[in-house]
């Protein structure tokens, strides 16, 4: 990783074509596409993050039909998924989709290695404290320096999300263990997408089980609630599930990860002048599910397309975009006001809809006929009433 640790001298403005604030999934996904685009790959680019990207701090799972830009670092993939609840369980093929896993450390190392082949790319380890636009330029202030650029692509959430009246905020919080066993305990061809057979005391709660071999799997305890749990509660739930449901008595934990993802229909900070918000800060986390990875990839593609065409960089606000924002708000209304449990909602959907339709819908790629298949699987009155409420407060 290229680094320039700055001194504490008085600030001096150094100019770049583009500055990327935050070297996480959003920032590095955009950087990789910049490096792969001949028209843009010689631009002078600065990436700023307050941390070294040397830890395997998270795992991303997503589905796609074709090979994506990160295909050569996919850690494992599945074409068979399982859904489980007390009322319905099923195993099904998701072809032509594949469900894919990418480890955080692999993504970081992959993009940073690619960037190190370009002398026009700089990485700096600094904390960004303020962004602004002035005189057709973006200005980035860190604790040590001031930089300017033609555009800033920012993935940093500077303020805590505080929903306005009639807006909702749930937290998707999770803890995962990568467990290893001496004896074969898993089927690496089948991933458990959602297992709701765990206690629903706190709210919408389920387990992922993502086997990468017969002896190794990521087991993740996930909740959609207003508040996070005490640290020991995640461990207790994971321990209980591994023992009682997976029937595994002896194992070792080779990796742990914890995360919190905001699920909200609150509008995120708008782009200001030459400052373009990306990732979760740019509203790319799907409000009703917390899925982010593929939405980041779509936004990165839109940005690259606009830069190549020398068009204004604006957020997607077309009719299709507004349709899915409305769907998200309706589901958040139902979950936040506890009109129907997440377990019951997802059970009805998986029981009555094809897995391909579900994945399209969750990916904001469904058409009207797909939407109707999802809508008809759910209790009409509850969702119609919530929909009218969301329309009335627009």
3D structure, described in words:
This protein is an alpha/beta fold and 394 residues long. It folds into three domains: 13-57 and 102-162 and 266-309, 3-Layer(bba) Sandwich (FAD/NAD(P)-binding domain), CATH 3.50.50.60; 169-264, 2-Layer Sandwich (D-Amino Acid Oxidase, Chain A, domain 2); 319-392. Helix content is 29%, strand content 30%. It has helices at residues 25-35, 104-115, 231-245, 293-309, 319-336, 342-352, 355-362, 368-376, 380-392, and strands at residues 13-21, 45-49, 59-64, 76-78, 80-84, 89-93, 98-103, 121-125, 128-134, 137-142, 146-154, 169-180, 190-195, 204-213, 216-225, 252-264, 275-277. The strands form three sheets. Strands 1, 2, 8, 9, 10, 11 and 17 form a seven-stranded mixed β-sheet that branches. It is globular, with a radius of gyration of 22 Å. The N and C termini lie far apart (46 Å). The relative contact order is 0.15.
Question: TL;DR of this structure?
Answer:
With 394 residues, the protein is of the alpha/beta class. It has helices at 25-35, 104-115, 231-245, 293-309, 319-336, 342-352, 355-362, 368-376, 380-392, and strands at residues 13-21, 45-49, 59-64, 76-78, 80-84, 89-93, 98-103, 121-125, 128-134, 137-142, 146-154, 169-180, 190-195, 204-213, 216-225, 252-264, 275-277.
Number of helices: 9
Query: What is the structural class?
Result: alpha/beta
| Helical residues, percent | 25-40%
List the secondary-structure elements in sequence, H or E.
EHEEEEEEHEEEEEEEEHEEHHHHHH
Strand content: 25-35%
**CATH 2nd-level architecture of the largest domain:** 3-Layer(bba) Sandwich
Give Rg in angstroms: 22 Å
Number of domains: 3
- N- to C-terminal separation? 46 Å
Which CATH first-tier class of the largest domain would you pick?
A: Alpha Beta
Low-pLDDT segments: 1-10
Largest sheet: 7 strands, mixed
């Amino acid at each position: 990783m290229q680094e320039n640790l700055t001194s504490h001298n008085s600030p001096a403005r150094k100019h770049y074509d583009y500055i990327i604030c935050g070297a996480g999934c959003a920032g590095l996904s955009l950087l990789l596409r910049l490096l792969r685009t001949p028209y843009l790959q010689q631009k002078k680019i600065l990436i700023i993050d307050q941390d070294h990207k040397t830890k395997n701090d998270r795992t991303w799972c997503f589905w796609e039909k074709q090979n994506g830009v990160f295909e050569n670092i996919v850690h494992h993939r599945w074409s068979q998924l399982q859904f489980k609840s007390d009322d319905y369980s099923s195993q099904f093929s998701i072809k032509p989709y594949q469900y894919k896993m990418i480890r955080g450390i692999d993504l970081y190392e992959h993009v940073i290695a690619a960037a190190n082949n370009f002398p026009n790319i700089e990485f700096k380890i600094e904390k960004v404290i303020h962004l602004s636009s002035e005189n057709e330029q973006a200005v980035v202030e860190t604790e040590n320096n001031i930089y300017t650029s033609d555009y800033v692509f920012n993935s940093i959430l500077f303020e805590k999300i505080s929903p306005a009246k009639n807006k909702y905020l749930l937290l998707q919080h999770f803890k995962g263990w990568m467990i290893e066993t001496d004896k074969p305990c898993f089927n690496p061809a089948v991933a458990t997408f959602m297992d709701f057979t765990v206690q629903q005391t706190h709210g919408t709660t389920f387990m992922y089980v993502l086997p990468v071999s017969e002896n190794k799997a990521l087991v993740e305890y996930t909740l959609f609630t207003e508040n996070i749990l005490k640290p020991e509660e995640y461990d207790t739930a994971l321990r209980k599930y591994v023992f009682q449901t997976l029937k595994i008595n002896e194992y070792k934990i080779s990796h742990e990860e914890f995360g919190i993802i905001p699920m909200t229909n609150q509008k995120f900070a708008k782009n200001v002048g030459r400052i373009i918000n990306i990732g979760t800060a740019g509203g790319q986390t799907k409000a009703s599910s917390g899925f982010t990875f593929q939405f980041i990839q779509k936004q990165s593609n839109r940005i690259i397309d606009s830069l190549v065409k020398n068009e204004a960089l604006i957020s997607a606000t077309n009719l299709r975009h507004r349709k899915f924002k409305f769907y998200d708000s309706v589901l958040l209304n139902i979950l936040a006001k506890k009109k129907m449990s997440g377990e019951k909602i997802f059970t009805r959907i998986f029981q009555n809809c094809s897995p391909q339709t579900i994945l399209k819908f969750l990916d904001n790629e469904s058409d009207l006929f797909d939407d109707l298949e999802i809508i008809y699987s759910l209790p009409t009155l509850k969702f119609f009433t919530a929909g009218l409420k969301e329309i009335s407060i627009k």
